[in-house]
Amino acid sequence: MIGDFSPEEKDGFYKAVFSRRDVRSHFTSDPIDEKILTKILNAAHHAPSVGFSQPWNFILVRNNETRKQVKDSFDRERTRSSTLVEDPKRSKYLSLRLQGILDCDVNICVTYDPTKFGPFVIGRSSIPETGIYSVCCAIQNLWLAARTEGIGVGWVSILSNDDLKKILEIPEHVVPVAYLCLGHVSNFADKPDLESAGWLPRLGLKDVVFYEKWNNSNDPNWQQIRQMIISNLDYA
């Protein structure tokens, strides 16, 4: 695994990045091969982590009763959050398909345990949030590995962490970071669902890159890369 990437391997990586989708529908009933699921989890476990603390755990859930309880939490939270916006946006929000908890093959709850390896973790003393950031790196590894294996992943964020802790018997000090739905899909969409639905537009790369200081979008020392960014170089 050590060494340079071939052109084909580079293309494969970018294909996974640009074709990754947050899957909420199109799940099929086909089970994920256990070897494939293990490879996906192993890729997640090899993510970078602050101070090599590896602060994640992965709770695998297939039990239907457990999943129904999680789905009930989603329904309650979706109803509650819908009151935060007015029509017509409220109606559009409620019409969106935002989870596949009962439809996919397996659910995975990814957690953060700040107590792993004791109270002192190199690099976390100045920025405590780097522990959770590390878990997010593991989630991204999992997502890209799953896409490479043809497995869809959906992150269900409309949930109560208090509910998850009770349902999954998670200790008080452990933080649920992500509740994921994994499964085979009939197809991967060309664009993210929320982009296709017109919920929000995709920003151009030029809109999110500054040079040297905040909000400086035009610096003479960065003209060449700025022009390439304006051209919106994209592998999609």
TrEMBL record:
<keyword id="KW-0288">FMN</keyword>
<feature type="domain" description="Nitroreductase">
    <location>
        <begin position="19"/>
        <end position="184"/>
    </location>
</feature>
<keyword id="KW-0560">Oxidoreductase</keyword>
<dbReference type="GO" id="GO:0102919">
    <property type="term" value="F:5,6-dimethylbenzimidazole synthase activity"/>
</dbReference>
<protein>
    <submittedName>
        <fullName>5,6-dimethylbenzimidazole synthase</fullName>
        <ecNumber>1.13.11.79</ecNumber>
    </submittedName>
</protein>
<dbReference type="InterPro" id="IPR050627">
    <property type="entry name" value="Nitroreductase/BluB"/>
</dbReference>
<dbReference type="GO" id="GO:0000166">
    <property type="term" value="F:nucleotide binding"/>
</dbReference>
<dbReference type="InterPro" id="IPR000415">
    <property type="entry name" value="Nitroreductase-like"/>
</dbReference>
<keyword id="KW-0521">NADP</keyword>
<dbReference type="InterPro" id="IPR029479">
    <property type="entry name" value="Nitroreductase"/>
</dbReference>
<keyword id="KW-0285">Flavoprotein</keyword>
<dbReference type="InterPro" id="IPR012825">
    <property type="entry name" value="BluB"/>
</dbReference>
<keyword id="KW-0547">Nucleotide-binding</keyword>
<dbReference type="Pfam" id="PF00881">
    <property type="entry name" value="Nitroreductase"/>
</dbReference>
<keyword id="KW-0520">NAD</keyword>
